[in-house]
Amino acid sequence: MEKTTANTTDRAGKGLNTGKKRYSDTCKTPAKRDSFNATLVKQTAEVTNVSERYVNYVIAGDRENSQVMAVYMELLEGSNALLQRVKELVPFD
């Protein structure tokens, strides 16, 4: 006697009433791309002559490269200092 299993997915690959919720169903707001971080990663990749993906690996800790991390931190601190200076000069009241 053969065992048959019920098909628990529809054609789109979504679950058919299995009682499990997908992450997209539970998430109230969709994840947004951080353009500030993307710009820093792109600038770091250009300066160090590596790919943007590699820079992201280094930031995440999956790869070790002190030069890439040093350039990224320097750009990050420079942009933070510039932003702080602008906030001091421009009254936002």
Chart the SSEs and their pairings.
Elements: H1 23-26, H2 35-48, H3 52-60, H4 66-89
Helix pairs in contact: 2-3, 2-4
Supply the key terms:
93 residues, mainly alpha, flat
What does this structure look like?
By secondary structure, the protein is mostly helical. The protein has four helices and no strands. Helix 2 crosses helix 3 (52-60) and helix 2 (35-48) packs across helix 4 (66-89). 9% of the residues are buried.
Which secondary-structure class do the elements indicate? mainly alpha
By DSSP (H or I, 4+ residues per run), the number of helices equals 4
Give the N-terminus to C-terminus distance in angstroms. Answer: 78 Å
Number of strands: 0
- What's the helical proportion of residues? 40-55%
Broad shape: flat
Cα gyration radius (Å): 23 Å
Query: Beta-strand level of the residues, as a percent range?
Result: under 5%
Q: Uncertain regions: pLDDT < 50 for 5+ in a row? A: none
Question: What value does the average pLDDT take?
Answer: 79
Q: What is the H-and-E element order?
A: HHHH
Specify the biggest β-sheet: none
Oligomerization: single chain
How would you concisely characterize the structure shown here?
The chain is mostly helical. The protein has four helices and no strands.
